[in-house]
Amino acid sequence: MSVINRLVVLLPGFEHMPVEAHHRRFLREATKTAPVYDMSLQEDGALKVSSAEGGVGVGEFTLVTAGANWSARTDFVLYGLGDINHFYAARNPAVRILSGIVALVDFIVSGTFFRFLSTSWRYALFFLYPLVIMGAVAVLSIGAGRLALAMTQQAAVAVAVGLGAALALLAVAARKMHFLLIMDDWTFARDMARDNRPDITAKLHHVISDAAARISQAAPATEVVVAAHSMGAICALHILDAALQQNDSRRYGLLTVGSSLLKLALHPAAKALRASVEAVARSRAIWIDAQSLTDPMNFYKSNPVRDLNIADAESPVLVKVRFRSQLCDETYRSIRRNFFRVHRQFVYGVEKRSAYSWHAILCGPETFADVAARGGLPCECAAQSASPMKIAETATI
């Protein structure tokens, strides 16, 4: 009987969520996924929440999984990067929009946007998304003002109507289209690339040093994996770089999914991040990068090593994910037009077996090295998927 002991460092994306919420989601979706991959799953003990130096929440929990002739114990260390991101959401909406505009202009003037076009044109479309929203708001509010002027012949009324329409449309965009979150996201990316916020950088450095210290304390037989979603990949590369500086003889695992790594790494000012990518790529670390055509917020068909022109380095194992193939038709139809929900599907549970599952990779019987060598999880199964009813019942236990 094979027994696996793991340490997984979890790094979420740019979401204003506390550690407790991320833990609840991980446990809920892992419970949903477990029967699909013929696993039993239970949490060993309660979530322990503390703060790393710098005020970033840290959650520690353990999941025990088992199946035919195998068992695994996975200790998770989850960093609440939302404690860092929350600063951006707490600002005045006008400041959030203006700083986002400055960031977008920076990415154009620096040439980074054009690197997006040559690396993954779909991501370039995502870059244009907030600009399209602002353009639509401007056109519609100006139109409303002109209509009011034609009806009243009073300029003051026209200006008031135009401004009111702009505010109303921006409120709708913030609530329905995540407009302010997107503007915060680009502001954060610019700040990280140019190191404009020493206070935020200090918080990230505390996370990096804390995670590297925990990794260095792991027993030699423990499998160590750093797993990151979206913008969390930036922190993940820095953490592995720091861990390698402490011990470069160990073979670490790196799992990046829906990664926004190139969002910063392609910016000419992000020299420190590119140095970390280079150090990891030239090490013995095993890197799996999961991408999906359906998700407009990841760099589909990219290869960080190739696209950053890193010579004499090992490219990541690229796993292409089709969300349609791991969800039942009803579930897929319910999320496919919500691109934020599609982006989060990388860290949500699945209803059918496929080569990729966030929870099966991090909690299952396959070593990370075996998953990478195969190019993904084994998909062969007598019962390829659990019924929706069975999954729903399991998730409520």
TrEMBL record:
Transmembrane segment boundaries: 97-117, 124-149, 155-174
**Keywords, sorted A to Z:** Membrane, Transmembrane, Transmembrane helix
Its protein name is Alpha/beta hydrolase
Q: Which organism is it from?
A: Phyllobacterium myrsinacearum
